[in-house]
Amino acid sequence: MDIGFCGTGRMGTAMVLRLIDQGHRLTVWNRTAAKAKPLLERGARWAASPAELARTHDLVLSILTDTRAVDSVYGGAEGLLAGAAKGKLFVEMSTLPPETIRRLATEIRAKGAGLVDCPVGGTIGPARDGKLLGLAGGEPADFARARPILEQLCRRVDHLGANGNGAAMKLAINLPLCVYWEALREAMSLIRDTGIDPAKALEIMTESSGGANALKSRAGKIVTALAGGSPDVGFDIDGIRKDLRTMAAVANGAGLELPVTAKALESYDAAAAAGWGGRDGSSLVAWRPGAKA
Predict the structure, then answer these.
(1) Domains of the chain (ranges plus CATH)?
(2) How far apart are CA 18 and CA 101, in angstroms?
(3) Is the pTM of this model over 0.70?
(4) 216-247 as b/e, with b when 16 or more CB fall inside 10 Å?
(5) pLDDT tens digit string along 79-96?
(6) Residues with catalytic annotation?
């Protein structure tokens, strides 16, 4: 199948490579063209603009940074919706406020096209192996059309109802993970000066009721960070900060309070101010207030 893809950051690149491995022909666009070079070397084609990508493809996937990026890529004279979009299907996989998705869905339907919001759980490794968790919202017919491709990217894909519901579910599953790294940082601080081997402590933690699923795959990264190293980045601290702010904004709009989320964000903000923003989110466990990158 010919597939258009907007956004070739870390996750987008892994997804495109996965789809190429599955035998699809990919055409890509990214704001920074240099980031697409590894994909072009693997046979992907380059589109000069999002508009060109949409003109030449009936199915376009996108994974972008935030609402501002989505508005820029979908709107404007060179955006995905600039030309005739009737009959096309867009699959937006970014982590966004549900209201952004609902507004975008209205704009896309007005063009005679369809939208599935399907943000995913998982990082680069699962994306490369087709083992993400897909959280989809949209019209049943649009989801049915997108599902064969989503199933090649995900180990599980759930249709959760109307547009925006996928986005809401993604924020919900990200919240405990983001908070967990701060909780684990505090837990590890209790044994920091005891002489207990951090690797042994994390092994025990993984086997305990205090061990999250994510700890099983990221304990090694945390040990590296605790030893002063910089582990490979899957989902960085700046990305977590963006998601936590989005969660807070959505909750505020609904008249809710998220006090634990707010306190966790304070730690992430402080770590970012110390130069840790580009590090993997699990590295927060190794950050100490006052420590510089």
Answers:
(1) 2-162 (3.40.50.720), 168-286 (1.10.1040.10)
(2) 25
(3) yes
(4) eebbebbbbbbeeeebebbbbbbbbbebbebb
(5) 999 988 999 999 999 999
(6) 170
